[in-house]
Amino acid sequence: MIASHKSAGQLYHKLEFLADMGLTTEDANISTVIKKMGEHRSEEGLFQLPMNIPVHSAARGRPVGLGVV
To answer: Cα–Cα distance between 42 and 69 in angstroms, integer?
Structure first.
């Protein structure tokens, strides 16, 4: 679950680091990760991250997923 989008431990930051190092979708296991990520895109094309919305939250009943550019 996302506690902060700024956390260096988030998967998308790790993937960005690997891309900066030169890894591509041709490298071992990266294509598998990219395929999994592609399964969780919004209608706008943004990658979505899972999140839990508390029952008592005003956001209850809204789409569950946080778009990430």
So the answer is: 11
Kind of pairing between the strands at 66-68 and 47-49:
antiparallel
Q: Residues 68, 62: contact at Cβ < 8 Å?
A: no
Q: Is residue 35 predicted with pLDDT exceeding 80?
A: yes
Q: Which helix (H) or strand (E) holds 16?
A: helix 11-20
Q: Residues in the chain, how many?
A: 69
Does the reported pTM lie above 0.70?
A: no
Please tell me the distance from the alpha carbon of residue 38 to that of residue 55, in angstroms, as a whole number. Answer: 28
In three-state secondary structure terms, 66 is: strand
